[in-house]
Design goal:
- With 333 residues, the chain is an all-alpha fold.
- 70% of the residues lie in helices and 0% in strands.
- The protein has 14 helices and no strands.
- α8 (148-161) packs antiparallel against α9 (167-194), α10 packs antiparallel against α11 (236-253) and α11 (236-253) crosses α13 (272-285).
- The longest helix has 31 residues, at 295-325.
- The chain is globular, with a radius of gyration of 19 Å.
- The two termini are 32 Å apart.
């Protein structure tokens, strides 16, 4: 990128805004990439696939450019985010975005480079976050669903990794995400039951609980098929993991009034990727364990879920655009 092209981009975000640009904005890329994957899986329209893939990629490039500027100009502000009990967990959203974009662009040769970069950064950022959680002082009220994000990355690795021929790395990464998902879920449940409720700004993050079991089911299915003999049936473990995701999805639906009443914050993007992962798991896994006569019903369910998800993404995109227009994003908290 030349100096001439960089100057207009730098001017697009004043320095005061740049300093307060939050790392959790990469959750937008996760949501848009997840939406692109659901468009491909459910709708299967090439034009729609390309448009949504380009949108997710463009947002990723723009956010990466501005956050790189923040690192250069305001390193202390980045350090403060890295010490924050909530924002800390969003740093791996960058590497997860790369992993998801590798799935979005899977049929192109450059997808492998996105995946390898995502894997490398995911390892570094997951270790960084876990090190911080172990060695820094946090209270039980600091525990929040965003802590699932660092461990969701290793679970996402096999989604594209197995299709790119990296079964070994995918198989090693999977149990890392799985074990820490179980451990953190136990800690989070303890915090939610026995301590203060989540503040309104963090309420949408409850939806993050849907991502690990949904992705765990998808990735187990990918690893299972990578090593299985041609024509072999999927392991019932896949259906068991999907069952956990289904239960979490229903549980979250019982909290729908709480989600609707919550004020709109940037954290509302936490709704997006977990729902995308659940739709992908429903579309890809359930038909393998269902009788053929139920396929038409399943297709109707898939399209209904996707339609509602498309409305959710549109809502999030519009509301976020309004906040940007009003100057209410990238401000001191």
């Amino acid at each position: 990128m030349t100096q001439e092209t960089m100057k207009p981009m730098e001017a697009a975000l004043p320095e005061s805004k740049l300093k307060h640009m939050p790392i959790n904005m990469f959750a937008i890329v996760m949501g848009l990439a997840g939406f692109s994957l659901t468009c491909h899986a459910v709708v299967g329209n090439e034009t729609l696939d390309l448009v949504t893939a380009l949108l997710a990629s463009a947002v990723f490039v723009i956010l990466t450019f501005f956050y790189a500027l923040k690192i250069i100009k305001y390193p202390q502000a980045v350090v403060e985010e890295a010490n924050h009990p909530v924002k800390l967990s969003f740093f791996p959203a960058f590497s997860i975005s790369l992993l998801l974009l590798s799935s979005v662009w899977l049929k192109y040769d450059f997808a492998v480079y996105l995946w390898l970069a995502g894997c490398t950064l995911q390892l570094i950022l997951t270790l960084f976050v876990l090190y911080s959680l172990v060695h820094k002082t946090f209270s039980i009220n600091h525990v929040n669903p965003a802590w699932f994000i660092p461990v969701a990355g290793p679970l996402i690795v096999p989604m594209a990794g197995t299709q790119l021929g990296y079964g070994f790395i995918s198989t090693i990464a999977y149990p890392i995400g799985f074990i820490f998902w179980i451990l953190l879920f136990t800690i989070l449940l303890y915090r939610l039951v026995f301590h203060d409720p989540l503040p309104p700004k963090l309420v949408p993050m409850l939806c993050i609980m849907l991502a690990p079991p949904s992705v765990a089911a998808l990735s187990y299915h990918a690893i299972d098929h990578y090593y299985a003999a041609p024509g072999a049936h999927s392991s019932p473990v896949v259906l068991m993991l999907y069952g956990i995701a289904w239960f979490v999805f229903v549980f979250l639906l019982t909290n729908i009034k709480r989600f609707i009443k919550a004020p709109f914050f940037l954290s509302a993007w936490a709704y997006s990727f977990p729902v995308a992962a659940f739709i992908l798991a429903t579309k890809k896994l359930v038909p393998e364990f269902s009788a053929p006569e139920y396929l038409s019903v399943l297709n109707l369910i898939d399209y209904t879920l996707w339609g509602l998800f498309a409305l959710l993404i549109t809502y999030l995109f519009v509301r976020t655009s309004i906040l940007i227009a009003k100057g209410k994003i990238c401000v001191p908290e």
